[in-house]
Amino acid sequence: MPVYSHSRLGTYETCPLQYKYRYVDRIKKDRETIEAFLGKRVHETLEKLYRDLKVTKMNSLGDLLTFYNDDWRKNWSENVEMIKKDYTAENYRKLGEKCIRDYYRKFYPFDQTRTLGLEQQIFINLDERGEYRLMGFIDRLAQGEDGVLEIHDYKTGQTLPTQEKVDQDRQLALYQIGIQQQWPDVKGVRLVWHYLAFDRQLVSERSPSDLAQVREQTIQVIREVESAKDFPPRESAICPWCEFVDICPLMKHLRKVEVLPVHEYLNETGVTLVNRYAEISTKKNDLVKQMDEELEKIKEALIAYAEKEGVEVVHGSDYKLKIKGKEVYKFPLKDDPRRGALERLVREAGEWEKFSDLNLNALSEAVQSDQLPDALKEKVLKFTDLEKSYRFYLSRLREK
Prior knowledge:
The chain is α+β, with helices and mostly antiparallel strands. It has helices at residues 6-14, 16-24, 34-54, 61-75, 89-107, 163-167, 171-182, 208-227, 252-257, 262-267, 269-309, 339-348, 360-368, 374-380; strands at residues 32-33, 80-81, 113-125, 133-144, 149-155, 189-195, 200-204, 313-315, 319-330, 385-396. Strands 3-4-5-6-7 form a five-stranded mixed sheet. It has a three-stranded antiparallel sheet with strand order 8-9-10. Helix 1 crosses helix 2 and helix 3 crosses helix 4.
């Protein structure tokens, strides 16, 4: 069995087809988005900060910004993709500067913890036999003044999660399992996320039972991956950032047409077919709605006519229509204030199982056909409104 990683399992959970392309078919795509490019440059800058500190070199904020901008220019390529067209590469470069500047000013002189490792590889055994294994890289492993180890992770994304969300995060919890396996006598472990774009730090601590649950859930995901036969695509908001958009059956057509000039786009076969389909479908739905509304009005008129004339069958030129009416009991719906009292009544009478979740159709039928005890029926009827229901049976007249 391969050694998995959190990101590999996360890929499967996000989109099984992306997992297949990347890890089963091993398709290599030389695609990098501006968000990924920014994240690498900021990570490398913070890594330099702490790597130099380990040998007592304190970089100034200016030193780090110079390193960051040199690193940006050296690695920049016109192939870096801008998914969000409202922003420029310069917007992202300045965002990276802001992240570094905020971090530097917040934690200077960086003596809150002692750095033990940078981009440190960690291996995690999820079971005693070592059958299920993972590996990962910790952005920064540190030790606080209280002796507790801290697993630090740097994020440059534009979404700030809630505390509840980070308390459920799997990645750093898995790293904690690996750290405690590597150092069994460790005093404790804190999980620390730096959301740099927001100048926010979020912290989480996990109990042994929390970690046991993470182990079991992760093993279940691995088992699902190992047994998978089909890898269907799964559409989500992050699809535009996937490296396989040009071959994915859900995205490849969009990828193909979005670069076309307007005159070519409007004449592209798929675009014209979908536009025509949407046009006809919309007209059909509007027509059906219009006909349904008209049919309801005719039904009301027919009911009034049949009652006035005292007939159950009305004849037309080629068809006849049988109109069958009967009185039915209408019970209060869930938003009706009387609904709670009705449910309590049925429960207390020991009849709840017959009308699980208070199936109003079943209850109405039971009342209609005298299936309830007389005493309960009498009480239940207090909740009802008696209405008349009509059914229409259309049939063609026999030719004379």
